[in-house]
Amino acid sequence: MKTFVQFVNEAYDPEVQGRSQIRKSGEGGRIGADRKKSAPEKRRMKAAGGGKMVPAKDYKPRKDIGSQRQRSEREQQPTKERGSAEVKQSYADKVKAERKKAAQARAAAKKSGTAAPEKKKTPTASELLKKKSAKKVSPNYKPAKASGKTRAERDKIRGEGERYLKGVFKKQETDRYVKTTGQQPDKKGKMKIAGRVNKRMST
Question: Which of 5, 157, 161, 169 has its CB surrounded by the most CB atoms within 10 Å?
Fold first, then answer.
């Protein structure tokens, strides 16, 4: 019968571990484990052109990998000593000013005969920690399918469509001008037609 140590040594053979795809903690000089997704796990895709989609490239590794950031670098540190008389006095002055302001508001309301302003309620811990309601999505919403075309290809197609539409509008406005005036447009007429076309294109 095998002992536990023998079983563990066989199950976790160092040679097998070296060849395996298991990600080790501290890989690439990191302090923690590498949580980057493998190629089959990736869902972020990128248009390769010609209607094809390929997995997006990995982000570049950060320059500060392996260095532990101190808390003092991430958070603003207090400028005064905790519990000092200066801190207590500044807080007391703040509370006093707030009370004075509220008293003045009540006195002004009493003098004018209006209702006194309600005291601002301090939210409880449960209210502060309450989860925000997620935005509702329409059940009829369907995300647009990826075309697989690059930005340049999409811009080219859109440009061709806009030029074609502009030509159609220009013909319509020219025919309308000829029908109204009974003559072909001159320089001034062409400018008027161009203005109408641009207005229709912008709407």
Answer: 169
The alpha-carbon radius of gyration of the chain (Å, integer) is 35
Characterise 26 by phi-psi region: left (phi > 0), alpha (psi -120 to 50), beta (else).
Answer: left
pLDDT at 25: 60
Place of tokens 């059940």: 139
Contact 109, 115 (CB under 8 A): yes
Q: Tokens representing 160? A: 């061709």
Note the pLDDT of residue 156: 94
Residues 86, 185: contact at Cβ < 8 Å?
no
Sign of CA dihedral 108, 109, 110, 114: positive
With vertex at residue 42, the alpha carbon angle to CA 41 and CA 45, rounded to the nearest 5 degrees, is 150
What was the pLDDT predicted at 192? 93
For residue 114, what pLDDT is reported? 78
> C-alpha 178: how far from its chain's center?
52
What are the residue ranges in the chain where pLDDT is below 50?
none
Residue extents of the structural domains in the chain: 154-203
200: nearest Cα among 157, 171, 180? 171
Per the CB < 8 A criterion, the answer to whether 180 and 189 are in contact is no
Q: What's the CA angle centered on 49, arms 44 and 53, to 5 degrees?
A: 30
